[in-house]
Structures are given as structure tokens and as C-alpha cells.
Amino acid sequence: MIASKALYLSLFSPVVAANIIDMIEKGALLPMFYLPPVAWFSKFKTYQSDILLEAEEHFPKQTYRNRANIYSPDGVLSLVVPVVKGSKVHTKAKDVRISYDFRWQRLHWMSLESCYRRSAYFEFYEDALAPFYQKQFDFLFDFNEELLHLLLKSVKISASPQKTESYEPVYPPGVTDLRHSFSSKKESDLEQKPYFQVFEERHGFIKNLSIVDLLFSQGPHAINYL
User: Fold this and answer.
1) How far apart are CA 125 and CA 1, in angstroms?
2) What's the rounded Cα separation, in Å, for the pair 69 and 217?
């Protein structure tokens, strides 16, 4: 087994090897998302002690990296964090800047309030979330990362994920590469236990929405649904 590890690591740069040397058995590589969907958190929970967050990839558009789906009176509503023009496929994820050409933070917060004010636990998390829609962050990755720390604490997952220090298109078989496993354009195949949703009587249960949908509904019990 030790020889196999050495063979795999010899194929990668020293920086990457340092990142994954303790993750070969069961680690996972996840993209950094904005208010990630439930499926993302389910995977994070599975691998929580051995997680790498991708910081060096080229920024792909129309993904959860800068958007989140919530439940509105009309069904699924996508909240999109605008990025500065020029943040295309050749810009590293960690270098993508947030645009403040319009007041998207106010729009997102008003949407969260209007959609979830009636939920059981919105007020429980409101004070902690509100500052993210007041303070201006320069970079999308930094915004998502700081928000993630709050969400992990709220979901009661204790973990300190590491970030990649170089981009590698392929990782050793022991590392589960989940960078392309979540699509904002098609329904997730996640087997998800239903929970009460505010507008369920109108559109039924919608799975794999943003983690805040689960948090606002189940509060401290959210982790039992991951």
C-alpha cells in the first residue's frame, strides 16, 4: 500500500502531494459554492475530515459557484452573485471579483426574508447571516469561504477544509473528485429525506435546494437530513 501511494504521488507536483498525502484513502475534492446545495453538504459530511476545496480551477460560469437556488412562492428562485466582466474561463476561481454595479446584496437578502420569514428557524440564523449582505467582499471565493464557515457551524459540522494550491486536472484514485458532480441546470440524483418546506403546498417538495432552505426549516436538526 505504501508503495502504491508513493507511485501516485510521484506523478503530481510536490505542492499537490503535500495537500493530498493524508487524503489518499478517503479524501474528496469539492468546488467552492455560494450557499451550497444540500447534496454538496451531504458529500462534505461524508468526507468532512479529509476535504480539499478547489481554489485554482478556471472559473466556470452558470454554476453554483456564484448562484444558489431557494424556494419562493413561484417555485425555484436562483440568487446569482454578479461577477466583474472579464471573469471568464481563463480566470482562476480565487481571482474572480464580485461586481457591485447594482445592489444585489439587498436583492438577495430581501429574497431570503420574503421566502423564509415564515419558516421555523429563519430568525434563529438571521443575525449571523445579515452581515454578509451588508459588507462588501472583493473576491467571490473569499465571500463564499467566509460564508461557508458560518454554514458549517450552523449545520454542526466541525471541519477545517484545506484549499488547493495548484490546479490538477486528475487526482489519484483515492481522492474523490467532485468538482463536476453538481449541476445547477439539471435535477440532482440525491436520495434526500423530505422535510417541511414553506411553500410545499403549492409546488410539492423540491430537493437539493440551498442549505439555507434546510436550515431555516429544521434548524439544529438539519444535519439529520444530510
Assistant:
1) 46
2) 15
Over residues 157-198, the pLDDT tens digits come to 988 889 999 999 998 888 999 999 998 777 777 788 999 999
Q: What share of the chain is helix, strand, coil (3-state, %, to 5)?
A: 40, 15, 45
The span from the CA of 88 to the CA of 42, in Å, is 29
DSSP 31: E
User: How far is the CA of 169 from the CAs of 5, 66, 111, 140, in angstroms?
Assistant: 18, 22, 37, 22
The radius of gyration of the chain's CA atoms, rounded to the nearest angstrom, is 18
**How far apart, in whole angstroms, are the C-alpha atoms of residue 223 and residue 131?**
24
Q: What is the pTM of this model?
A: 0.86
- What CA–CA distance (Å, rounded) separates 162 from 164? 7
Distance (Å, whole) CA 28 – CA 43: 8
- Residue 50 identity: D
